[in-house]
Predict the structure of Cupin domain-containing protein.
Amino acid sequence: MRIVEGAGAWRPAADGAANDWAEQLRTPDLSVGTYCIPAGGTDDQSPHTEDEIYVVTAGRATIVTPGATAEVGPGSVVFVPAGEEHRFTDVTEDLALLVVFGPAYGSRGSAAPSPE
């Protein structure tokens, strides 16, 4: 057993970066991290080679995919299949997302840049 410290907690980006991404846990089969976008910020991530689940722990935004658009806030859980375009827009409050990748982020090779 392991307690995953800091997972899902808001933290501002360091050194002038637009957003913050930190991986808190990695095993071959999954990885867990936190992705933070400040209010008014822009999500510039690309599709990933792994399935992912977002759990909104703080903030409000809209998630946009080719097939749907939805408003999200604390407690929202979003599944994005591998390879699907997706982006958080209209970030009205500092957004903190617990992100679970399965299998672990980048393990399928040719991964897009991490969500930062």
Q: What stands out?
A: The first strand starts at residue 20 and ends at 26. The chain is about 0% helix and 45% strand.
